[in-house]
Specification:
It is built from 12 helices and no strands. By secondary structure, the chain is mainly α.
Length: 233
């Protein structure tokens, strides 16, 4: 994947994340911030003045932080704003090298987001025992069905699931060593986010994280020398 292709795909996918979030607010009549966001995101998706569009979306993101006193939807809002920041810097960069550094930063942060999440879980005895995942099903306010809540009593299954998540997240950076391994890892990660959307209603995390995948796919080729004349490392 070329740098230009990764940049364009990232713009399209982060636009989907912003349109999804904006549509949820527009349905509740919140047009002041989210109306312009949807319009500009559609323009970015279509490739209309992308350099200007990402900066406008970045400014709207800061306005939303002020309006809601922080990233009200947690990690997904942070990831979208990080992606917009890196895209904005890439478009405004004085040279190709600095533009690549901006996209590389997004890729590294994406890989670290999985690793750090796994490391935190590994150090948490409740996650190692499966209790944390059991509590999510038993006491969570997310709109899961009663049938899914019954999984809270499946301790052995949840222990296996907990360790599967922990090991996958901690080992995620190793996938950068091979293109095929990274493709598989990103596929598994996408399914993980999709399952969280289905089970717990965390639908915004899907596009927020997938939106940064093209940057990581490009970065893997770049650091191994397959996507440039020389490797970064």
């Amino acid at each position: 994947m070329s740098f230009e292709a990764a940049l364009r795909m990232t713009e399209i996918l982060v636009s989907l994340a912003l349109i999804q979030r904006g549509a949820e607010h527009l349905a509740r009549g919140e047009w002041r911030i989210f109306g312009p966001q949807v319009v500009v995101a559609l323009a970015l998706m279509a490739g209309v003045w992308p350099g200007i569009a990402v900066w406008v979306l970045w400014a709207l993101g800061l306005w939303q932080l002020h309006r809601f006193q922080g990233p009200y939807n947690g990690g997904s809002d942070k990831m979208v704003l990080l992606t917009l920041t890196c895209l904005a810097i890439a478009h405004a960069a004085p040279s190709r090298l600095w533009a690549e550094m901006a996209l590389s930063y997004l890729a590294v942060q994406l890989a670290l987001s999985y690793f750090i999440s796994g490391w935190v879980k590994l150090r948490n005895p409740d996650w190692r025992s499966g209790r944390a995942l059991s509590d999510v099903f038993a006491f969570s306010a997310y709109p899961v069905s009663e049938g899914l809540r019954a999984l809270a009593g499946r301790r052995r299954l949840l222990w296996l699931c907990s360790w599967a998540v922990i090991l996958f997240e901690v080992a995620f950076p190793l996938a950068l060593t091979q293109q095929a391994a990274l493709a598989v890892a990103l596929g598994v990660a996408a399914l993980f986010h999709l399952s969280n959307a289905c089970f717990f209603g965390l639908n915004r995390f899907v596009w927020a994280w997938i939106g940064a995948y093209p940057a990581l796919l490009w970065f893997q080729l770049r650091i191994t020398g397959q996507g440039a004349e020389f490797p970064l490392l």
